[in-house]
Amino acid sequence: MTADKKFNFAKSYQELxxxxxxxxxxxxxxxxxxxxxxxxSKLVSDLKNYLEKMENKIKELKK
Length: 63
What we know:
The protein is mainly alpha-helical. It has helices at 9-23, 30-62. Helix 1 (9-23) runs antiparallel to helix 2 (30-62). The protein starts with 8 loop residues before the first helix and ends with a helix.
């Protein structure tokens, strides 16, 4: 996740959904699949980090 831009959770989640849908096709290209897998892995990591950050923020607000 880039620090200089505000993270857009919904947009990132939609991008991840598109990648998953692409993999669900019957025929996929190996080279393109590897690139999409890398992109998807980064999106999953960014989404997870964002959710953890929001969870911590909520915990702080509850104190």
